[in-house]
Design goal:
- There is one protein chain.
- It contains three helices and eight strands, in the order E-H-H-E-E-E-E-E-E-H-E.
- It has helices spanning 15-23, 28-31, 110-142; strands at residues 2-11, 35-41, 49-54, 60-67, 71-78, 81-91, 97-106, 150-155.
- The chain is globular and about 45 Å long.
- Helices cover 29% and strands 41% of the residues.
- The longest helix has 33 residues, at 110-142.
Length: 161
């Protein structure tokens, strides 16, 4: 398995605000700059499938493989590889959240897909998570959740170098 990158961010938004944004996949392009559109075929639940269209890329099927009150994992089904986005969230003492996202590739063609996708995904993780946090914080503020700010730390790795 190759780790394409990971990032962590502290937000004033509660975990429910992030799960609300993850569940509303039609709005993903609002905070994920590389995504043209996303369609979930069914409820936001383990085993649900969908299709997403990356900007400049082909339609890609995905499946929600894990969903708890602390974890959301979706796996894009690439030819010869699985691109996994593991989202972990923990509430903070002040009612906010610590959100961590790790992206991995596995399968016989993982190294090839890493050459195609790896740098772009690693480079966009901070930007996309920060945009998601801004959206979640705006949702929380609109619902009466108060002020919004996010701060984060990023670690990107390229195990295929």
């Amino acid at each position: 398995m190759l780790t394409l990158g990971s990032t962590t961010l502290i937000s004033t938004a509660a975990p429910a605000a992030f799960f609300g944004r993850w569940a509303d996949m039609a709005t993903w392009p609002e905070w994920n700059a590389d995504t043209e559109w996303v369609r979930l075929d069914g409820p936001f639940a383990p085993g649900s499938t969908g299709v997403l269209k990356p900007k400049g890329g082909p339609r890609t099927k995905f499946v929600v493989t894990e969903l708890t009150d602390r974890v959301f994992v979706d796996v894009s089904l690439l030819v010869g590889a699985r691109l996994t986005f593991h989202h972990a969230i923990a509430p903070t003492a002040d009612g906010g959240s610590e959100v961590a996202v790790t992206v991995t590739l596995a399968g016989p063609l993982a190294r090839l897909w890493n050459l195609v996708l790896g740098k772009g995904i690693a480079d966009s993780l901070d930007r996309d998570l920060a945009a998601l946090a801004r959206a979640a914080e705006a949702d929380a503020a609109a619902a009466g959740g108060g002020a919004a700010s996010a701060r984060g730390a990023h670690t990107a790795t390229d195990d295929a170098a």
